[in-house]
Amino acid sequence: MAGGPVRKAKRAGGGSQYPIQGMEFLKSKGQHILKNPLIVDSIVQKAGIKSTDVVLEIGPGTGNLTVKLLQVAKKVIAVEVDPRMVFELQRRVQGSSHASHLQVIQGDILKTELPYFDICVANIPYQISSPITFKLLSHRPIFRCAIIMFQREFAMRLVAKPGDSLYCRLSANAQLLSRVDHLLKVGKNNFRPPPKVDSSVVRIEPRNPLPPVNFKEWDGLVRLCFSRKNKTLGAIFRQKNVVALVEKNYKTYQALQGALGSSASTDNGATDLSMMADAGSGRGGGDAEEGGGGQGMDVDMDGGDMDMDDDGDEVTKGPVNKYKEMGLAVLREGSFEDKRSSKLSQDDFLRLLASFNARGIHFAN
Q1: Residue 76 β-bridge partners
Q2: Can you tell me the distance from the alpha carbon of 221 to that of 344, in angstroms, rounded to the nearest whole number?
Q3: Is position 217 annotated in a ligand binding site?
Q4: How is residue 34 annotated by DSSP?
Q5: pLDDT tens string for the chain (365 positions)?
Q6: Binding site annotation covers 182?
Q7: SS3 354
Q8: Per-residue buried b or exposed e for 307-320, using 16+ beta carbons within 10 Å of the residue's own CB
Q9: Contact 275, 138 (CB under 8 A)
Q10: Cα–Cα distance for residue pair 130/285, rounded to 1 Å
Q11: Domains of the chain (ranges plus CATH)?
């Protein structure tokens, strides 16, 4: 998404490009111009910018939002991939009193090493919402907050609570690392060209300090649980591929413990959250409702015949499999066996992960 000039536009042939004074805005690249100045003002106001703040703006376009940010911030760092937009943005502020307070970085936000900033304000391309979100949350030092325009469905997944229909892996991961609040809905007609979906502005405030948890472990467990979020955890941990994963990870962890000692699992992954970036998209939310819930889970296993549950998933049957029993024992001890991921809170997942770890069962592989 790009914040550009409010000018009359004629529709180009094919409906995919809108020329504005010789510049074509490409919907395929997420270039939709926010044309409502009241929404621009509201975004700036809700950001709570101080006169001493450095603001990071992602996808400034031709600068509608940038100009407003420069009026209240000490400095604005704008990251823009389109060289035409960079030129227009620089031309727009040239000769003004704010020109010296603007730094423009031309490049792909996902490949750019971000400098220090206090607040992030962005109208982003919706197709990269998830990787941008977790790139920001992995940034150090921790910033104060981010005010971001997302596709509405993605935004509602970010803020969804346990029991909500949109609650998913994305919700759990984002809310572990930050406080997320919905600020306002923005209809598609506030943009030129209008996107196919409505949008929402969300405030993301990173937790500081971060919770004391290994984030690779956390994401591994949450990914597994949300592979079938409406099934009971007991049913999930009876599936053939899940039991195989428990066995594989248990053996790997024991081998690491033997080689490295107790330090094998001390890193909490606080600055590497890239594995969470595929936790959801505006369309799918990352529930992975099809499939077994993670990589490396198609390993064949010994010790037990197979049967199918009501959803067609292979489950262990016959001779007792000790790895299945290890997993189920953890669930029973914590009264989780009959619970569903869609209803579990952050504290529930943290307690469940701690219980598995105490039994030597890990999810980082």
Answers
A1: 55, 102
A2: 12
A3: no
A4: E
A5: 444 333 333 333 333 333 445 556 554 455 677 879 999 999 999 999 999 999 999 999 889 999 999 999 999 999 999 999 999 999 999 999 999 999 999 999 999 999 999 999 998 888 999 999 999 999 999 999 999 999 999 999 999 999 999 999 999 999 999 999 999 999 999 887 888 899 999 999 999 999 999 999 999 999 999 998 889 999 999 999 999 999 998 988 888 877 665 554 445 544 567 667 665 443 333 443 333 333 332 222 233 334 445 455 555 554 558 999 999 999 999 999 999 999 999 999 999 999 999 999 999 76
A6: no
A7: helix
A8: eeeeeebbbbeeee
A9: no
A10: 9
A11: 13-206 (3.40.50.150), 215-358 (1.10.8.480)
Identify the bridge partners of residue 20 per DSSP, sorted by sequence position. 23
State yes or no: 32 annotated in a binding site. yes
Q: Is 293 left (phi over 0), alpha (psi -120 to 50) or beta?
A: left
Task: Report which of 289, 82, 43, 257 is spatially closest to residue 166, judged by C-alpha positions.
Answer: 289
The neighbouring-strand residues paired with 2 are 33
Q: How far is CA 249 from the centre of its chain?
A: 25
Residue 34 among known ligand-binding residues: yes
Query: If phi over 0 gives left and psi between -120 and 50 gives alpha, with beta otherwise, what is residue 80?
Result: beta
Sign of CA dihedral 358, 361, 363, 365: positive
What is the number of residues in the chain? 365
Residue that has been written with the tokens 């819930």 in this structure: 293
- Beta carbons within 8 Å of 17's beta carbon, 6+ residues apart: 24, 25, 26, 27
Kind and range of the H or E element at 130? Answer: helix 129-137
Do 135 and 119 form a contact (C-beta atoms < 8 A)? no
Residue type, 332: R
pTM, two decimals, is 0.81
What CA–CA distance (Å, rounded) separates 203 from 146? 6
Is 59 annotated to bind a ligand? Reply is yes
User: Binding site annotation covers 123?
Assistant: yes
Exposed/middle/buried for residue 2 (C-beta within 10 Å: 0-12, 13-18, 19+): buried
